[in-house]
Amino acid sequence: MRRLVMGRLNVGFRGMVALAAGLSLVGAVACSPTNLEGMTQVESETAPVQRDPNTLRLLYGRSVATLNPHLATGYQDFEAARLSYEPLASYSQDGELIPFLAAEIPTEANGGLAEDGTSVIWSLRRDVTWADGEPFTAEDVVFTFEFIRNPEVSAATAQFYEGVESVEALDDHRVKITFTSPTPAWDVPFTGQTGMILPQHHYADYNGLNAREAPANLQPVGTGPYQAVGFEPGTVIYEANATYWDGRPAFRRVELQGGIAPYAAAREVMQRGSADFAHNLQVEADALAALEPDALGQISYLFGSQVERIMVNFANPFVRTEAGEQANPQTPHPYFSDWRVRQAINLAIDRDTIAQELYGPAGKPTAQLLVAPEEYQIPDLGYEYNLVKAKLLLEQAGWVDSDGDGIRDQGGVPLEVLFQSAVNPVRQRTQAIVADSLKEVGVAVQVSRVRVDEFFSANPEDTNSLNHFYADMQIYSIGNESPDPATYLGWWSCEKIASMANQWQEPNNARYCNPEYDRLLAQAKAELDPDQRTALFQQMNQVLTTDVAVIPVVHRALVNAVSNRLAPAEFTPWDASTWNIKDWAIAPETQTEATE
Question: What is the pTM (predicted TM-score) of this model?
Answer without folding.
Answer: 0.88
